[in-house]
Amino acid sequence: MEYPVTGLHHITACASGAQEDLDFFTKVVGQRMIKQTILFDGRYAHYHFYYANGNAEPGTVMTTFPYKRLMGRTGSGQVQATVYTVAKGALPFWIDHFNRHRIVHRGMHERFGQKFVQFNHPCGLQFEVIEDAAERRVGWSTEEIAPAESVRGFHGPLLSVREIEEEERFFMEALGFRKTGVDGVYHRYEIGRGGAGKTIILLHEPQRPAGSWTFGAGTHHHVALSVADDEALAEQKGIYEELGYTDCSEIKDRNYFHSIYVRSPGGVLVECAATAPGGFAKDEAFNQLGSHLLLPPWFEHRREEILAMLEPIKPPEFHAPVPVEAIGASRRTEATFVAVDREPADREYVREPVTR
Amino acid sequence: MEYPVTGLHHITACASGAQEDLDFFTKVVGQRMIKQTILFDGRYAHYHFYYANGNAEPGTVMTTFPYKRLMGRTGSGQVQATVYTVAKGALPFWIDHFNRHRIVHRGMHERFGQKFVQFNHPCGLQFEVIEDAAERRVGWSTEEIAPAESVRGFHGPLLSVREIEEEERFFMEALGFRKTGVDGVYHRYEIGRGGAGKTIILLHEPQRPAGSWTFGAGTHHHVALSVADDEALAEQKGIYEELGYTDCSEIKDRNYFHSIYVRSPGGVLVECAATAPGGFAKDEAFNQLGSHLLLPPWFEHRREEILAMLEPIKPPEFHAPVPVEAIGASRRTEATFVAVDREPADREYVREPVTR
Prior knowledge:
2 copies of one chain form a homodimer.
Chain A: E1 7-15, H1 18-29, E2 32-38, E3 47-52, E4 61-66, E5 78-86, H2 91-100, E6 105-111, E7 114-120, E8 126-131, E9 153-161, H3 165-174, E10 178-183, E11 186-190, E12 199-204, E13 219-227, H4 230-243, E14 252-253, E15 257-263, E16 269-275, H5 303-308
Parallel strand pairs in A: 1-4, 5-8, 9-12, 13-16
Antiparallel strand pairs in A: 1-13, 2-3, 3-4, 5-9, 6-7, 7-8, 10-11, 11-12, 14-15, 15-16
């Protein structure tokens, strides 16, 4: 059978400070900031930042909700780390680079014959750079990071699960991945031609307490897989519902893509996303991507009010990128915003009651 | 704050044989069969049976999908047992009754000062009868079960979870339950005035492997909580989405009620349901409830085709019940049914590939 999913689309995490996040991704990871917008759900105004390679391609897109109001709790049932590929031989550069930026890292390790270095976002989120000789995508580059050393896009997410069986069954039966290897605690699944951007790795941690599923600083929120269009989203929703995953969301209008979300049995929230006509270039010129806060049409008339609730940021200076090919539902169109995204006095893992 | 949920609405499980299921609920449990219809999702034709008290009230409604095609796997992250209340002093009757019907049971035990007996559906599903002196609801009665001994409705579901913390947080923060006690491995949460029909109990089983989430014989599928109307469903969906439960489904038209579904962090699928205008009496007279296979309007023209795919059943004979008060979205309106619900030759916990 043909499954709709073709590979990774984006990965989303809750960061903490907005400027801190922006500096980490543009200066340390060296991605291109391709969009400043806001979280479309809920009554709190939060940024939604997008970072990608120069071409803003699906499979390279890291997105964050800077989210100071609440801390998340890391644990099993979450994306444990987002893994970027780099060229073979690039890791010594990255270790020096992390040291220069005083970024916490754990040195060089190996998985499925590929060397990687795990490093931390200042808010605690975990990332990795992994060497991949087969990587042909073009990365972004910065004053410190030359094209040869740049991150090219995702290898894939590392998902921490207490049990392999049902999560494996979900990725294989519901999404069409195939199992391609086990290396100690790591179980690898690939789709399509496999390799970078087409891989999911489960990290088996049977004794690890579950992390939180709610939005919370320092935790990944979901992994998004790429499908062709709205018809493919509807088909995937049908596959989920027939299997009994009745909670699959409606098709949501995320402005730059349309999405469905479902919870996988290992605990990770899995989105399927179909890039909308125009993609990230639908509301700003390709060589200006990420330079201004953009709101979806249904919030544009409230720009002043929303801006006043967000941490002021200084976006990165822009290079002139190569041209991108133009690529190609339910939405929250109104909201009563109730508060600014401000760090509470006691910023522990707070159990904040929902007050509406 | 006011939360929309007021108590339990229904609980749904995947049974195995249709006649076996019907006999169990009408003769052993002694509920009234109030609806014969079909599962509205997927490409396989399955029955959907509803059983309740005489008044077909929310909080008494057990529903099943007889589902022979696949076995489910029981485990943590599931409804472990559905618990019915009976009058104080009724348990000796029930033990005799189970013995007469050769129903597997585990004798009398006690939890939070209430005596209960756990017993098994022939397909392995677990149920309990628990004594509750405060119970005032009217049960159904049969030739073997007098009104005084009858099950009155749900006390609530028993949910098996490996960890208490995030599941508790979900029921309290997202749904408005309050914690009212711990008794060994049992953690109790109540809503509204509490007690029968307003209670959820978590069973802490830290070492128990996770059960399957897909449809499969012998496993509970979801627990449904009651809300007033579509506006309350939309409000609850907003609460979920603001917290980060982005997978919450759209509002689905289940003909007799409208529903949203979300996965709770302990693994249990949680529905919120608002009874539709007319409720279960919308398409058959109240004193005829459950006497005929009824299809939603969008499948009625395919009755012959659907009937041919279902196990022939002999519904129970009907009593004349007391009159009910009439009480007061997205749907699957077309389907290509691909197979009959027939037990496969090898009926183990099969990993059936999705073939479309």
